[in-house]
Design a protein that fits this description.
The complex is a heterodimer of chains A (278) and B (261).
Chain A lengths: L3 E9 L6 E10 L4 E5 L6 H8 L7 E6 L2 E2 L6 H7 E4 L12 H12 L3 H14 L15 H13 L5 E5 L7 H17 L3 E6 L2 H4 L4 E6 L2 E6 L1 H6 L1 H6 L6 H11 L11 H14 L1
Parallel strand pairs in A: 3-8, 3-9, 6-7, 7-8
Antiparallel strand pairs in A: 1-2, 1-4, 4-5, 9-10
Helix pairs in contact in A: 3-4, 3-5, 4-5, 5-6
Chain B lengths: L13 H4 L2 H17 L3 H18 L3 H8 L3 H14 L5 E5 L2 E4 H27 L2 H16 L5 H31 L9 H32 L18 H19 L1
Antiparallel strand pairs in B: 1-2
Helix pairs in contact in B: 2-6, 2-7, 2-10, 3-6, 3-10, 4-6, 5-6, 7-8, 8-9
The chains are: A alpha/beta (278), B mainly alpha (261).
Chain lengths: 278, 261
């Protein structure tokens, strides 16, 4: 059974407002790295909050680990199973000391003190922040703060983590740090990742991509299949990856290149192959 | 200006290692002691104790004295007021309408010493206790009141979040200030009223952003299963040790001595 099932979900912020999410359906398999791609205001953050029961669908249903998010008595089970890391690193850290912040979620769950201590150390080590346990959050860089936020979620041992544009406010170094940690957690700990973003290069690293525009699902598939559809991406207000755009321009100019080139390395390989042929 | 009141001085001395609850209670006892003291000897005892505590905390006396600077004005002010307006006793100086009596000098000196002692004692508490330990201590001490509906946990949570966001908001203030200075705002010249008025456009964006932050933080806390104080455990357990008992005993002894003297 899939770990998350979203079926025909719509959501309105207010009764008289338009639908921020419209008839969206998809499923996520355990251990998958799924990117949700959309421009600003496309409804992707709303979708994220629907998944861990911060919002409850106006119609349709969201099921996480077999629990329907509409079941109010099990809201906390949903949130413990499905952690969430937000965009602004400053606005999601609660405590004045890093390790206290990581412990926050566990304290809320009522875990025994010794167990909390053990899991906090483990989680901080897992994100490479072990030596910063006693630091104050405001002394850390953006990428470090975001890794602490991830540790805070990780300590709760969730099966799914939703990242709501968690790299949008970071510099390139911070983005790379966070991305590496998340990919490792996905590969090694088998944690299902929902990566919400508008960065194409980040989405390219996912197993599967959903494209959201105007609140509804526009496309769904492997990164290569999605990026090939340049017209669809442009319509959704997204950039086409540079190398894919270049490959398509070269194809239009008569060069025999595949239309799903994503990276500079692939482009180099293909061009060399072409050159050796002639 | 350097304000040391309310700041934490990291360390591992006996005072640092004491339970925050014991420290808060001892501090309250000492404050009572300061107001009970009414003789040269009792003040001497209090000062000797305060000095011994400073040595125990391994914080330099100089650092503590520096913390007294901001309140020096208040100390001198109360000293002068008390000296001139206390009546009774034998007259020492009489010049036109000014009369200084020996009981005036006595009352004034005691009042000044009292203020200095109060600040030293409370400073020692905040310097040796991290803000987290302090709020934990307050929460734990107020817990009995929760039964009659006093929001002990909420209060402690609010205090610790406020402390968490002080540096963040300071940074933000600085940023907004620079952005406005870049567009010609002037925060440094003009009369006091003019400068206060220049601050207004600073406060509005700061408030707006503080509210947005509060909103996001609330969502993040909910996402991490925060649902109030009930059923919550703590990673750091407060534990009273022999050290705390010893501290309490010493404080009680001092209180008795001061009351007798």
């Amino acid at each position: 059974m899939s770990i998350i099932a979203v079926s025909d979900v719509s959501y309105k912020y207010r009764e008289d407002a338009g639908e921020a999410v419209k008839n969206v359906s998809f499923e996520v398999e355990e251990g998958e790295f799924l990117a949700i791609l959309g421009a600003n205001g496309s409804g992707k953050s709303t979708l994220a909050k629907l998944i861990n029961a911060l919002f409850v669908p106006t119609s349709g249903s969201v099921t996480v680990c077999g629990i329907d998010t509409r079941d109010e008595s099990r809201v906390w089970d949903v949130r413990a199973a499905c952690g969430m890391v937000f965009q602004n690193p400053d606005n999601q850290l609660v405590a004045t000391i890093v390790e206290e912040d990581v412990a926050f979620g566990l304290e809320n769950l009522g875990v025994a003190p010794d167990e909390i201590r053990r899991r906090v150390t483990e989680a901080l080590d897992a994100v490479g922040m072990g030596e910063f346990g006693k630091s104050a959050p405001h002394m850390l860089s953006g990428g470090q703060k975001q890794r602490v936020a991830i540790a805070g979620v990780l300590a709760m041992k969730p099966r799914v983590i939703v990242f709501d544009e968690s790299t949008a406010m970071l510099d390139p170094v911070g983005r790379a740090e966070v991305m590496n940690v998340v990919r490792r957690l996905n590969r090694e700990a088998g944690i299902t990742v929902l990566w919400i973003t508008h960065f194409m290069d980040e989405a390219a690293q996912a197993d599967r991509i959903l494209v959201i525009d105007g609140g509804s699902l526009k496309a769904c598939g492997a990164p290569r299949d999605i990026f090939r559809q340049t017209a669809l991406l442009r319509e959704a207000g997204l950039d086409v990856p540079e190398m894919t755009a270049l490959a398509q321009a070269l194809r239009a100019g008569g060069l025999c290149l595949p239309d799903d080139i994503l990276t500079v390395d692939e482009m180099v390989v293909e061009l060399c192959r072409l050159k050796s042929k002639t | 200006m350097q304000i040391t009141i309310g700041q934490y001085f990291p360390g591992d001395s006996l005072l640092h290692r004491m339970d925050p609850r014991a420290k808060i209670l001892i501090t309250i006892a000492l404050i009572v002691g300061v107001f009970l003291a009414d003789s040269v000897l009792s003040y001497a005892a209090m000062f000797a104790f305060a000095f011994a505590m400073i040595r125990l905390s391994r914080i330099s006396v100089k650092y503590i004295v520096k913390g007294l600077k901001p309140i020096m004005f208040i100390v001198i002010f109360t000293f002068v007021i008390n000296m001139f307006f206390t009546t009774g006793g034998t007259e020492l100086v009489r010049w036109r309408f000014i009369r200084i009596t020996d009981s005036g000098v006595r009352a004034a000196s005691f009042m000044a010493l009292r203020l200095v002692l109060l600040v030293i004692v409370t400073q020692l508490l905040t310097l040796t206790t991290s803000s987290i330990a302090l709020t934990d201590g307050i929460e734990s001490l107020l817990k009995p009141l929760a039964r009659i509906g006093f929001p002990a946990h909420e209060l402690a949570m609010m205090m610790s979040i406020a402390m968490r966001f002080i540096p963040t908001l300071m940074e933000e203030t600085d940023k907004i200030m620079k952005a406005q200075m870049a567009r010609g705002a002037d925060f440094e010249s003009g009369s006091l009223i003019q400068r206060a008025r220049a601050m207004l456009p600073l406060l509005v964006p700061l408030f707006v952003s503080a509210f947005r932050r509060a909103d996001e933080l609330a969502l993040a806390m909910e996402a991490r299963c925060y649902r109030g104080g009930r059923g919550r455990t703590r990673m750091k357990q407060l534990r009273c040790t022999k050290l705390d008992a010893a501290g309490a005993a010493v404080a009680a002894a001092l209180l008795a001595v001061v009351a007798v003297l």
